[in-house]
């Protein structure tokens, strides 16, 4: 993904946090004002992020110390604090959040769509074959888009992967084919065709995703190929043959991959398919969120606990149950007595009914900007924006670590430092 010609020039480049593609080629030598005046360099998501990042946010230091003490008091008195974390935190912040949630004996949840939760669980249950986007760019001969919308969620993904340059001077002339399966947005298909890419289309209804996957898997396995071909429909047989003839492939899937109620079984079947395709070839998979979340919270959670998305520290040890520890269920059953929201987008995947139920509890919110939501009992702690107000390390969608330099002056406190103070103030 990085152009070798830029070596030594990174001090003039800005990392865009508009989505988890984390484009790091925005020229900053002329300053933010010049970059804003020439937004043609930036995709729509990046331009929106850059505009929002200009909002000034300052608070008096005395108010901060009072808020930290109040947060400690509330967490100390709580028996079942619920931590709701958005997916846009840096690596250091995610680690500090985990440690503080554990010290408070709380429940930690990273709300996501049903497809995203299914993908996380599938990765935990059966594993996931991943690779870097640089490998896909330089080696892939087949890229599959299944039920995703990269033109809107990751606007530069097709541009970045579709142009292969022979940096090593090997004279390679790689042929790349794109395959779109299911409900892929017209804007993404148009982006592909406009760039001159070869596109094969399989417009399957997402109601049929699981059955199609099962047929594909039966046809990929060598011992079943002849039997499956005779009974499967022609389109499944054609896609299976394209997959079998691939030497290096990558499959991106998104929110329109399947019906939400089938997310768990369909995403697990998909990951098994990708694993089975790695017999004699290299094949990888990657989930693309519509909202372009770039945080590492669920991955850090998996690294440190072995579980993704929803865990409890209430018994002094890790407990995991994605159904029992859902935000909606915990609020409906009144199983929490204090809420901790982390991030500007902590409420993004929470239903309005559940947000309304939060008003009955004390709420501690770590964020950088104002939103329309307000709570009667609220400790509103404003913190620096990682990758804007301070340097931070993020993980791209392929889990490659990328630093994001600070480019804005701010007197706001660092989230990690605030959480460390709160954690040290808890006596549990």
Which tags fit this structure?
seven-stranded mixed β-sheet, Rossmann fold, 38% helix, disordered N terminus, 428 residues, five-stranded parallel β-sheet, alpha/beta, Dimethylsulfoxide Reductase, domain 2, 3 domains
- Total strands: 16
Q: How many domains, as an integer? A: 3
Cα(first) to Cα(last) distance is: 45 Å
User: What is the CATH H-level superfamily of the largest domain?
Assistant: Dimethylsulfoxide Reductase, domain 2
The CATH class of the largest domain? Alpha Beta
Radius of gyration: 23 Å
Q: Considering DSSP H and I runs of 4 or more, what fraction of the residues is helical?
A: 25-40%
What's the arrangement of strands in the largest beta sheet? 11-10-4-3-12-13-14
Number of helices: 17
- The CATH topology label of the largest domain is Dimethylsulfoxide Reductase, domain 2
* Mass-distribution shape: globular
What's the architecture of the largest domain, going by CATH? 3-Layer(aba) Sandwich
Counting helices, strands and paired strands, the structural category is alpha/beta
Q: Report the sheet with the most strands, covering strand number, pairing sense and barrel closure.
A: 7 strands, mixed
């Amino acid at each position: 993904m990085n152009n070798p010609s830029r070596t030594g020039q990174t001090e003039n480049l800005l990392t865009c946090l508009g989505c988890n593609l984390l484009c790091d080629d925005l020229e900053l030598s002329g300053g933010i004002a010049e970059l804003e005046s020439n937004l043609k360099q930036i995709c729509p998501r990046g331009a929106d992020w850059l505009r929002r990042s200009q909002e000034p946010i300052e608070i008096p230091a005395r108010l901060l110390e009072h808020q930290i003490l109040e947060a400690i008091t509330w967490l100390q008195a709580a028996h079942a604090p619920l931590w709701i974390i958005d997916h846009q935190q840096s690596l250091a912040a995610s680690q500090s959040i985990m440690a503080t949630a554990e010290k408070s004996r709380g429940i930690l949840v990273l709300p996501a769509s049903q497809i995203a939760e299914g993908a996380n669980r599938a990765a935990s249950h059966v594993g996931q074959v991943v690779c870097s986007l640089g490998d896909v760019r330089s080696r892939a001969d087949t890229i599959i888009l299944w039920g995703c919308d990269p033109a809107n969620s990751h606007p530069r993904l097709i541009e970045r992967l579709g142009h292969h340059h022979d940096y090593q001077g090997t004279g390679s002339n790689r042929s790349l084919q794109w395959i779109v399966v299911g409900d892929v947005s017209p804007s993404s298909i148009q982006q592909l065709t406009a760039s001159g890419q070869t596109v094969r289309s399989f417009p399957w209804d997402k109601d049929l995703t699981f059955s199609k996957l099962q047929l594909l898997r039966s046809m990929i396995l060598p011992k079943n190929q002849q039997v499956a071909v005779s009974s499967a429909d022609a389109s499944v047989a054609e896609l299976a043959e394209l997959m079998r003839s691939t030497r290096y492939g990558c499959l991106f899937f998104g929110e329109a991959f399947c019906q939400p109620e089938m997310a768990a079984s369909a995403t697990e079947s998909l990951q098994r398919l990708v694993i089975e395709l790695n017999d004699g070839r290299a094949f990888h998979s990657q989930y693309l969120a519509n909202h372009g979340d770039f945080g590492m919270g669920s991955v850090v959670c998996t690294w440190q606990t072995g579980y993704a998305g929803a865990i409890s520290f209430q018994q002094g040890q890790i407990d995991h149950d994605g159904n029992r520890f859902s935000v909606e269920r915990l609020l409906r059953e009144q199983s929490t007595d204090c809420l901790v929201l982390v991030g500007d987008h902590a409420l993004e995947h929470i239903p309005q009914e559940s947000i309304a139920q939060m008003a009955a509890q004390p709420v501690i919110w770590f964020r950088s900007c104002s939103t329309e939501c307000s709570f009667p009992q609220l400790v509103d702690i404003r913190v620096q924006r990682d990758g804007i107000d301070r340097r931070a390390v993020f993980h791209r969608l392929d889990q490659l670590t990328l630093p994001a330099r600070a480019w804005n002056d701010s007197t706001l406190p660092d989230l990690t430092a605030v959480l460390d103070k709160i954690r040290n103030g808890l006596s549990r």
